[in-house]
């Protein structure tokens, strides 16, 4: 008897096939095309491990729940939920569970198990039993690259009264592995080469990439005196950052909370190495951080850190760690190394860089979380495990809920809204919401190409200009940044001849033509409306500083993951449709180039240019919102340390507090975020889509967050 997966999770209880129920059936799912990677073979035989994803409830209220515990004026501020409370709040209704269970029992199924996260019913069935239940035929499909066999059907049916209670059934129409080329084992030769890393992804469909590729050889040696603040307009050292944001040195003997390690995401072959850290510590924090201080690695689905490769650290990982350690030390840092090396090195990457597999690993319920007609990871977009690639494939099952999330997670990676299916983005955004309910702060780099993506000539995947629409002039906001449940960090810069000692605000929006046109990512979503916590700030911005270029007012329709346009398997943004929607009255008949009704980005900002780093044994200056993000994340982690020592909880989702009390940030009022040949938006008084509300003022932020329950 053939067992397609290891039985054991759920008891093996096989009943005799029973006569099909006489209720009327409706088509529930149908596969429209077959990936060429899979070859259809004989009829399936044996035992199938069946799982039924149940429709979840209360997602409409999820936003209100998060606001209720994140707004400073709410009596429930800081009352974060446990993961069990989140599961219970969104669990399928009793009616759903009973209705589906009754149907299964009436069809002769026994041994039905309800999963711990409540989202699934599971049982084992013989092939004839499953075929009779779902009015379908199961075949075996062989993966031509790995020889793996999966049972699947082309379509299946369920009784009409069941349809609204289930999302999908496995095995079903899905063939798991993404279509792609067989990997060759020489990809690792690119490891550790910054230029190579960027080049690797030029042909990508939707790949996110790191936000920190602007590395250059500095024009001067590291300052002889690590405390010297007179050089901060040329080189940003840890002392400059402390001076800019009034961050006091840490108390090295203060007891630390072991649950408060700062989380940092890495993928895309970004490994840290000890020797680079030691060079950095000995040059810039000699009396603070001893050599051999290093982060804890949490390796997800075969991710790893090749920490023993002396002087081979990645630009992104070294920047993230070197900028965050001086702020949080002696507190620890935890690096999430996400996805196996095969996926990290895949030349024709078609997946969206590990955010979903990170979320799966820190919240097991996300693995089966259904929303917008999608459940679990999306074939062709996310890595699939087991990955039977002989080249560094992780051959275990997808890791679900194996790690606790850290209180703060800093992510200096991302892509563009326009390149990722809308339903996929929305489901992922709800997961950020659910982790926010549990008190986790997600910080994302707002992007490094101003109002657009990089032009094709610099590796962008959105055409010649990096902007959208038939003329390539429509602004191109970043993903997942526009999700309203994360905190976006834009980039600032101390321009030459400004002083961190004598000026109240020495910083302007970062805009550095010498670094490939890097400028602080910002703009307005085409998918999400302005969230309530941001509405007043955005309205004030438009009232007082309306940008002098045309706009439109439209949001992408809710697609529920269903394919519409021809040829595209999942709905992407249709800019032409949005642009020809409601136009601004000041447009004089021209088509708009940005959306006036979308969620604005970034929320806050921090320094992101001319950052002193050691990478591959060399002293270099780096930049990007990649640097800004771990600075802001580290500041929140310091604040959490103080709150935890008073018996309070972590700050969690901070946007509602910061928008309600913007005076705890240093407003940035100078500079623009040019991109795709456009001058971009301007930094102005108050919130703006260039630097957000401003940079941290540590003592004020600390006082505010300590005053909250
Ligand atoms: C280093 O610079 C700081 C700040 O300017 C100053 O207080 C200190 O005396 C300097 N140390 C040395 C050894 O020059
Ligand atoms: C550092 O923390 C220790 C232990 O809590 C405390 O006794 C000491 O006063 C602190 N030092 C400073 C400078 O705050
Ligand atoms: C930091 O990590 C080290 C090494 O893993 C561990 O020994 C130490 O207890 C950790 N410190 C805290 C405060 O968790
Ligand atoms: C720390 O490591 C760096 C780099 O290897 C080295 O130059 C420095 O001398 C070391 N410092 C100490 C105190 O060992
Ligand atoms: C470095 O670590 C990797 C992975 O842990 C291992 O395969 C390799 O042999 C190590 N190399 C050296 C030089 O120790
Ligand atoms: C990657 O995709 C490009 C364009 O689709 C194709 O020309 C190239 O052969 C692919 N690379 C590999 C290694 O298959
Ligand atoms: C999975 O990987 C382990 C260790 O690399 C290996 O021993 C095992 O044979 C692999 N299993 C499969 C099914 O490839
Ligand atoms: C529309 O025309 C008016 C009057 O000529 C001008 O002031 C305004 O800037 C124009 N608006 C746009 C978006 O071009
Ligand atoms: C989900 O997508 C399938 C096709 O993939 C479609 O038949 C079905 O109607 C969609 N369900 C909803 C609720 O949109
Ligand atoms: C995008 O929208 C335009 C205008 O509504 C329409 O003509 C076009 O067919 C749409 N494209 C796709 C791929 O759906
Ligand atoms: C404003 O920003 C520009 C660069 O865009 C910079 O040269 C100038 O010094 C800044 N002015 C002030 C007052 O900060
Ligand atoms: C267009 C469409 O079908 N929208 C639906 C998507 O799914 C949500 C709930 O899952 C419905 O409320 C929408 O009506």
UniProtKB/TrEMBL annotation:
Keyword Nucleus assigned: no
One cellular component (GO) term of this entry: extracellular region
Subcellular location(s) per record: Secreted, Extracellular space
One Gene Ontology molecular-function label: metal ion binding
Segments for region (Disordered): 203-222
Organism: Recurvomyces mirabilis
Cofactors required: Ca(2+)
GO biological process: proteolysis
Keywords: Calcium, Hydrolase, Metal-binding, Protease, Serine protease, Signal, Zymogen
Listed name of the protein: Peptidase S53 domain-containing protein
Catalytic center residues: 316 (charge relay system), 320 (charge relay system), 626 (charge relay system)
Residues where Ca(2+) binds: 667-668, 686, 688
Domain Peptidase S53: 235-708
Signal peptide (UniProt feature, chain positions): 1-15
Gene3D superfamilies attached to this UniProt entry: Peptidase S8/S53 domain
Cofactor note: Binds 1 Ca(2+) ion per subunit.
């Amino acid at each position: 008897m053939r067992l397609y997966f290891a039985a054991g999770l759920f008891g093996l209880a096989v009943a005799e096939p029973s006569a099909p129920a006489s209720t009327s059936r409706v088509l529930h799912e149908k596969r429209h095309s077959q990936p060429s990677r899979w070859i259809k073979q004989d009829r399936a035989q044996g035992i199938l491990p069946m799982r039924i994803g149940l429709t979840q409830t209360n997602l409409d209220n999820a936003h209100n729940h998060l606001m209720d515990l994140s707004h400073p004026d709410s009596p429930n501020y800081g009352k974060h939920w446990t993961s069990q409370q989140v599961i219970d709040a969104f669990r399928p209704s009793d009616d759903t569970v009973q209705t589906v269970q009754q149907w299964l029992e009436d069809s002769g199924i026994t041994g039905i198990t309800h999963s711990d996260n409540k989202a699934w019913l599971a049982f084992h069935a013989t092939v004839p039993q499953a075929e009779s239940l779902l009015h379908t035929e199961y075949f075996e499909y062989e993966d031509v690259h790995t020889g793996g066999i999966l049972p699947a059907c082309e379509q299946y049916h369920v009784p009409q009264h069941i349809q609204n209670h289930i999302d999908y059934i496995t095995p079903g129409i899905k063939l798991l592995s993404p279509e792609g080329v067989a990997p060759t084992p020489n990809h690792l030769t690119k490891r550790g080469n910054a230029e190579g890393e960027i080049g690797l992804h030029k042909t990508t469909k939707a790949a996110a990439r790191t936000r920190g590729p602007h590395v250059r050889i500095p024009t001067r040696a590291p300052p002889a005196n690590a405390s010297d603040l007179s050089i901060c307009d040329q080189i940003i050292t840890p002392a400059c950052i402390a001076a800019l944001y009034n961050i006091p040195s840490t108390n090295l003997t203060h007891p630390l909370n072991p649950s408060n390690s700062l989380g940092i995401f890495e993928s895309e072959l970004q490994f840290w190495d000890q020797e680079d850290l030691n060079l950095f510590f000995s040059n810039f924090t000699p009396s603070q951080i001893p050599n051999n201080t290093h982060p804890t690695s949490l390796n997800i689905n075969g991710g790893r850190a090749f920490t023993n490769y002396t002087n081979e650290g990645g630009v992104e990982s070294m920047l993230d760690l070197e900028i965050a350690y001086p702020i949080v030390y002696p507190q620890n840092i935890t690096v999430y190394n996400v996805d196996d090396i095969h996926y990290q090195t895949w030349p024709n990457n078609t997946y969206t860089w590990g955010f979903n597999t990170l979320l799966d690993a820190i919240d097991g319920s996300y693995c089966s979380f259904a929303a917008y007609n999608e459940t679990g990871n999306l074939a062709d977009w996310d890595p699939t495990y087991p990955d039977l690639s002989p080249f560094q494939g992780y051959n275990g099952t997808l890791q679900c809920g194996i790690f606790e999330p850290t209180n703060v997670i800093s992510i200096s990676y991302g892509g563009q809204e326009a390149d990722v299916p809308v339903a996929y983005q929305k489901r992922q955004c709800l997961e950020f919401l659910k982790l926010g309910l549990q008190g986790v702060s997600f910080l994302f780099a707002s992007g490094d190409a101003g109002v657009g993506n990089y032009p094709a000539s610099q590796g962008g995947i959105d055409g010649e200009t990096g902007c959208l629409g038939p003329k390539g002039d429509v602004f191109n906001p970043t993903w997942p940044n526009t999700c309203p449940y994360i905190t976006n960090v834009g980039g600032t810069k101390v321009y030459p001849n400004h002083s961190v000692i004598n000026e109240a605000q020495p910083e302007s929006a970062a805009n550095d033509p010498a670094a490939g046109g890097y400028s602080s990512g910002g703009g307005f979503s085409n998918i999400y409306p302005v969230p309530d916590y941001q509405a007043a700030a955005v309205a004030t911005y438009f009232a007082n500083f309306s940008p002098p270029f045309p706009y439109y007012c439209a949001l992408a329709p809710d697609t529920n993951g269903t394919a519409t346009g021809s040829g595209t398997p999942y709905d992407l943004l249709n800019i032409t449709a949005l642009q020809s929607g409601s136009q601004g009255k000041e447009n004089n008949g021209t088509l708009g180039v940005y959306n006036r009704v979308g969620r604005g980005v970034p929320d806050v900002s921090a320094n992101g240019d001319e950052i002193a780093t050691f990478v591959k044994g060399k002293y270099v200056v780096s930049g990007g919102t990649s640097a800004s993000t771990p600075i802001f994340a580290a500041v929140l982690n310091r604040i959490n340390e103080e709150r935890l020592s008073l018996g309070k909880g972590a700050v969690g989702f901070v946007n509602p507090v910061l928008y309600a009390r913007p005076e705890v940030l240093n407003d940035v009022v100078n500079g623009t975020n040019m991109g795709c040949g456009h001058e971009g938006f301007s930094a102005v008084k108050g919130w703006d889509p260039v630097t957000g509300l401003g940079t941290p003022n540590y003592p004020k932020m600390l006082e505010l967050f300590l005053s909250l329950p």
